[in-house]
Specification:
196 residues; 27% helix; alpha/beta; Rossmann fold; 7 strands; 6 helices
């Protein structure tokens, strides 16, 4: 039964909204371009979608780089994708390589999360993250500079998410407390810097 918009989407959208000015020029988004349209608006000159299998503008593999050699964008929106890629470090490195110098990767990952049955059956689900693990993955990429890395969540929203509650079942104030002990969503804005 679909109860409505999941709790974690509130935080994902809050993060993207706070970095909306970075969603500009040529953009790439995993699976669909919902957030590019919602937060990029007129700043976006070209909106591409990426998928490993089908129904996308770009069919490519973030781990191997296959199908991605001709892609260069100003912004790459990658929400809740890394948990489903076993070699997440390679995928993150290739994601950064798709950016034009000065471009931005807007990345979100789950911290506290249940298993997604659909994704587990189709790709596998391998990871949950913390702010420290995500920071370390990014810092291992020489051309990547973390501009912002923040956590979202608290005990109430984490419990609600695990129980399958929807956003409308919580009060607006429930989302205002960010407790680093309950990292439901971690967001990072990462800039590609020129190589030395």
């Amino acid at each position: 039964m679909d109860r409505g918009v999941p709790v974690d989407r509130f935080y994902i959208e809050h993060f993207l909204s706070s970095h909306a000015a970075l969603i500009r020029g040529a953009t790439l988004e995993v699976s669909e371009n919902r957030y590019t349209k919602k937060f990029g608006g007129d700043r976006v000159s070209k909106a591409l979608t990426l998928h490993v299998k089908n129904n996308a503008d770009v069919i490519g593999n973030l781990v191997t780089g296959e199908g991605l050699s001709d892609i260069h964008v100003d912004c790459f929106i990658m929400t809740q994708t890394l948990p489903f890629i076993y070699e997440s470090g390679k995928a993150l490195k290739n994601a950064i390589s798709l950016l034009n110098p000065g471009g931005f990767l807007l990345l979100t990952v789950p911290g506290i999360t249940p298993i997604s049955r659909f994704d587990m059956a189709n790709w596998g689900q391998y990871w949950s993250f913390t702010d420290r693990s995500l920071r370390r993955l990014i810092e291992e990429i020489k051309d990547a500079k973390i501009v912002d890395l923040r956590t979202y969540g608290n005990v109430k929203t984490s419990m609600a998410f695990l129980l399958g509650a929807a956003q409308h079942e919580l009060k607006p104030g429930d989302f205002e407390v960010f407790d680093p002990a309950y990292q439901l969503v971690i967001g990072a804005a990462v800039q590609r810097v020129a190589s030395n």
